[in-house]
């Protein structure tokens, strides 16, 4: 049963666009549906982790706003960080799910128990995952991914009871 959910950021939680502002630094778009999906997962006891290659204060702000404290940024090797986390929490690969969208995600996508990518990911990423979410990154794809995990774990009725 999946209990640990790992999320990429750029291209998954966002549409991949990064806007630079002269006065405010970096601007990213996050979808509100993804936020509610993350909150659902937390209410059901899932542990969420952010694994991203970029280092961004905007990402940190959004994640902390959603109650995600496990934020790992600036990673050149996501699998190495995942292995440290796995060792620390004592779970096996089958207990983990990951959604990523690019070449630097492939090794981890192949490792976890359940993997997914967004509909606008490159074909070579789609070829290695268990599920291609029918939504583009930054437009609610994480929500769809989380709902799929909840359904696979037989917990959908609990979600309906919450709301």
Written overview of the protein:
Among the domains are: 10-42 and 54-68, no CATH class; 75-89 and 99-124, no CATH class. The chain is an alpha/beta fold and 163 residues long. 37% of the residues are buried. The protein is 38% helix and 17% strand. The chain is built from seven helices and eight strands; from the N terminus they run βββαβαβαβαβαβαα. Helix 4 (106-111) links the parallel strand 6 and strand 7 (114-117). Helix 1 packs parallel to helix 6. It has a six-stranded parallel beta sheet, with helices on both faces. The protein has helices at residues 32-43, 57-65, 78-89, 106-111, 123-126, 141-152, 156-162, and strands at residues 4-7, 19-21, 25-27, 47-51, 70-72, 96-99, 114-117, 131-132.
Mean pLDDT: 95
Strand order of the largest sheet: 5-4-1-6-7-8
User: What class would the helix/strand composition place it in?
Assistant: alpha/beta
How big a fraction of the residues is strand? 15-25%
Which regions have little confidence, pLDDT < 50, spanning 5+ residues? none
Q: Could you give a short account of the major beta sheet? A: 6 strands, parallel
* Alpha plus pi helix count: 7
Task: Note the run of SSEs as H and E.
Answer: EEEHEHEHEHEHEHH
Secondary structure: number of strands: 8
The backbone outline, from C-alpha atoms, is: globular
């Amino acid at each position: 049963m999946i209990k640990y959910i790992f999320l990429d950021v750029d291209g998954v939680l966002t549409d991949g666009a990064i806007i630079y502002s002269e006065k405010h630094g970096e601007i990213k778009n996050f979808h509100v549906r993804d936020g509610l999906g993350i909150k659902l997962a937390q209410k059901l006891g899932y542990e969420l982790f952010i694994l991203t290659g970029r280092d961004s204060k905007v990402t940190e702000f959004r994640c902390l706003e959603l109650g995600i404290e496990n934020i790992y940024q600036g990673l050149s090797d996501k699998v190495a960080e995942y292995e440290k986390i796995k060792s620390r929490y004592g779970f096996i690969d089958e207990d983990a799910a990951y959604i990523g969208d690019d070449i630097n995600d492939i090794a981890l996508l192949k490792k976890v128990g359940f993997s997914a990518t967004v509909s606008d990911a490159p074909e070579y990423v789609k070829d290695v995952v268990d599920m291609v979410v029918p939504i583009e990154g930054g437009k609610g794809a994480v929500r769809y991914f989380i709902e799929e995990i909840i359904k696979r774990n037989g917990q959908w009725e609990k979600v309906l009871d919450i709301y």
